[in-house]
Amino acid sequence: MTDRPAPRPPQSAAGLQARRASLQPALFWLGISLVTVFCLAPFAWMAVSSLKDPAHIFDNKLVPGSPTLVNYRAVFGDENSFGLALRNSVIVASTVTGLSLLVGVMASYALARLRFRLKNVVLGLFLATSMFPGVAILSPLFQRFADLGWINTYQAMVIPDISFTLPLGVWILTGFFVAMPWELEEAARIDGCTPVQAFRKVLLPLAVPGVFTTAILVFIAAWNEFMIANSMTQTPQAQPVTVAVAKFTGSSQFDQPFGTQMAAGVIVTVPLVILVLLFQRRIISGLTSGGLK
Questions:
Q1: If DSSP codes are grouped into helix, strand and coil, which group holds residue 203?
Q2: What is the Cα–Cα distance from 98 to 230, expressed in whole angstroms?
Q3: Selection from 265, 275, 277 nearest residue 51 by Cα
Q4: Domain of residue 214, residue span
Q5: What is the pLDDT of residue 101?
Q6: Which of 92, 98, 175, 281 is the least buried, fewest Cβ under 10 Å from its Cβ?
């Protein structure tokens, strides 16, 4: 007669719960690592490819055997006019950010402070506007701007960009203003401030985190815009960097300069990455403070 193994005692609910609790941090960091690798892998591959010689651009090596800056020198060649494209992008993105904040702050304050019917509907329409497909209005915009003589001008890129970035800014800032304690404004009014003074001296300083966050998000959206800029600019002197990179040409019309495009992509992306890394705490504070106040 064979001896049967003694049955294992069933684990208690407390033991199972403790085991799951011990696994949660490992699973959390595993998930964070996978997301980080997924997000950074394209940029890492772009940076590695930009350091490769054009003859070895397709060798699929994770580390270039002989790193070179030839692609970066080609980016700023005379035929590419990349420095001029950078200037155009800075002007357009900065103008869009400034105008969007100027209008967005006032509109957000009005939506948050005033009481009127269908206020939530108006706010929803603002958000729906930012989701409207730009390709649907591209042809009418081009025809109108051509009639006005605005092709190859900054305003042909700034005005459409504002129409898409302003609703995003209004949506973020409205939630921030709604969560503000309005007793501060009332106290300022009692102390003799006019409504404009109370807004400028009391509420606006408190809204700096939200305004700062909105400015960064709007600037990034305007900096990365391609479709409208590609349609409204037809000369290298007016093109922003997104269009200039797409129109890089090699030694012949059949040569695709992948290395030069990768180097240009790194140059365009690095300032945005540095900007987000430097001000990530402000961005998080601006996105969450409206709901925490």
A1: helix
A2: 22
A3: 265
A4: 81-247
A5: 93
A6: 281
DSSP-derived secondary structure letter, 136:
G
Query: Within this chain, do residues 158 and 89 fall inside the same structural domain, yes or no?
Result: yes
**What is the per-residue pLDDT for 264?**
87
In the structure encoding, which two tokens stand for residue 155, read together?
A: 């305003």
**Ranges in the chain, pLDDT < 70:** 1-19, 21, 78-80, 249-256, 282-293
**pLDDT the model gives residue 5:** 57
Asked whether residue 56 falls in the same domain as residue 92, the answer is no
Q: Which of 129, 130, 148 is nearest to 140 (CA)?
A: 148
What sign results for the dihedral spanned by CA atoms 206, 109, 179, 276?
negative
Specify the residue for token string 């939530």: 120
- Indicate if 58 and 88 belong to the same structural domain: no
What pLDDT score does 190 carry? 85
For residue 114, the model assigns a pLDDT of 80
Whether residues 224 and 96 fall in one domain = yes
Nearest residue to 232 (alpha-carbon basis) of 174, 129, 153: 153
Beta-carbon neighbour count of residue 222 at 10 Å? 24
Is-contact 162 213, C-beta < 8 A?
Answer: no
For residue 286, tell me if it sits in a domain.
Answer: no
Structure tokens at 63: 């580390």
Q: Based on the structure, what is the number of domains in the chain? A: 2
Q: Is 181 left (phi over 0), alpha (psi -120 to 50) or beta?
A: beta
Show the tokens assigned to 60.
């699929």
At which residue do the structure tokens 């408190």 appear? 206
Distance CA 279, CA 258 (A): 32
Closest C-alpha to 98, from 198, 169, 156 = 169
Helix locations, 60-207, DSSP H? 70-75, 82-113, 119-130, 138-148, 155-178, 183-190, 195-198, 204-206
